[in-house]
């Protein structure tokens, strides 16, 4: 932190290499050198030099020739998906999800484990064991694993790699998750907030332009938000971007521990929606045997079957969430809103019916444009997939700020 | 928008030139070539080449030698403040402020005019006349004027350079302010939202590190917010970042036109604070002859004199504003909060007494750090000064994204 740093030739070379690799990756079917030069603005000579290096390192391969007009046929270059892999782990209060992705972002293996007790040591040991099993199952060489990304509920102390006091994970206080898991697995570990990881996953797996901007609204045990701006995830200055739990959305809602009322945390979370549904009779009264997840699934199934009180409960929840989304999109000024997270698929029908209209009515820029609202393309595993993409992203995606010389 | 672009040597050269010029500007007293090399990470040869170009163009000058140890005395290089100037205009519903800044960011001339009627044509004509008078008064050559920055209330249509429907400027609808003013003055005109301009002003005039991150909370006729992240202002994807008027801060507050209650717009603005003070008796009842500005000043003076009801009214307003600031800083995850804008100086004492503690109590990262709250260093003219800084910034500040090759 402090002075502005310059850049130099080696930095420029690394950056352009990332640009070429990302452009090939995003092309899907591969690209010729001439197409790469047109797409990136780099000279033919630069493209030739960089692609030679990428071929030597095994990241890309030649994939036949195409004839598109007069002159020499063009050699197509495409990604070698199995040249590198990454592992994503999503730590949730109830379940831990593991995925192994290849360089193209395709999930190769997946595992799910219930979060054992709440003792940090036991959770970390179980995580390390599952990571080992995932690699063995996939038959992948450990040296091809770029690293392990862990998505965890915030707030995090990113500098120390610790999870501070994650809500609903009792017994976790300043757990040095990054260091302990790196020790237990022998792999490089990156810790990221679950919501930010989800946005990175969406950026990687989506087919939007490389420089798109969107707000990601994450529906998990808690509700969170993250931002991608001009193709870059914005993690916040302490990597804790997007703590939205105490933004007020319903002035007539229940009181909150923060002293306000109708905060997101007491109105928009699955637990809050279930409790409200029990109060209105949309769900049968208190049922201490069922988990929040089971009750929430029950509510969504009732709405799917056309039970009016259940449908009303979800519609009211969608309207409340719209107040949050409008507040966030008016502050952040984004092109698009994406909804996702582990609870998303169950409510996507009702929410996508309600939210776009509510958002437009509350948008500060409605005189200028409508803001599209989409469901995540990644699915319920977006936390784990996103965590694996965080690793791929740090290895592969060009970031202009990587050009700065080190302090 | 679309593909990721690479970079090349000319881009790198321009970027490093901006880095050197910014480092010299921020040093105040000037720096030697060796110090520049250490500060920026650039090689001695690169620094020598770039500083020669900057000397030739008149941006910097040699300013004597210092002897700091054995070896050759070092030649100090410093900015030539009067080599370039810029003009900032702040369009407010009640008053238009004009400033002329030199390259060091020092205000050289200032003018204030009451906003005439509300007819756009008359306002633009008056603006053009005032700009001409400002340049003549200062005795500056027009060729040394880098451009005119206009700070205007949002929302803006930045692509078209139009102000859409600014609140409280009746008669303004899609006014093409940028084009009309450029035509009338013969100068390049940049249009920026008042709140974003204020943050750029703070970044330029403040003495924080070049890569600091802060939330700027703007207290004007309306309340707005802007964000500087790692030394870069974040304007939002349509340059309308920071519309906070309908974030709820008081569940027991007055109803708002948006359907909610207790929104920033009906609780935190000078008009809302004055109306509430009249309801509680902190100010004498309805007085249609006085402007909101006069009534607000009256309230602040009563609080200064120790009138308990007036002090209570401002403290309550500060607590409500704290709810907004906590919501924003929890979402945006910033290192610091800066308060400013045309109404700031009148309330700074009471607000700086109340807000830091309220914010800390509501901060999602309070287990990690305390977030400092500061008053703006720029003063009530921050809109106009900021608009002038937007021009200087576009000319002078290195932005990593400027490295990308054009589409």
Summarize the structure.
2 copies of one chain form a homodimer. With 407 residues, chain A is α/β, with parallel strands linked by helices.
Largest sheet of chain A: 5 strands, mixed
Number of strands of chain A: 15
Strand content of chain A: 15-25%
Look at the structure and name the CATH superfamily of the largest domain in chain A.
ATPase, nucleotide binding domain
- Secondary-structure element order of chain A, as H and E? HEHHEEEEEHEEEHEHEEEHHHHEHEH
CATH class of the largest domain in chain A: Alpha Beta
> How many structural units, i.e. domains of chain A?
3
Largest interface: A-B, 83 and 82 residues
Classification by helices and strands of chain A: alpha/beta
Here the CATH topology of the largest domain in chain A equals Nucleotidyltransferase, domain 5
- The CATH architecture of the largest domain in chain A is 2-Layer Sandwich
Average pLDDT of chain A, to the nearest integer? 90
The quaternary structure here is homodimer
**DSSP summary: helix tally of chain A:** 12
Strand order of the largest sheet of chain A: 6-5-4-7-10
- Overall helicity of chain A: 40-55%
The rough form of chain A would be described as globular
Global Rg of chain A: 23 Å
How far the N terminus sits from the C terminus of chain A, by CA atoms, comes to 8 Å
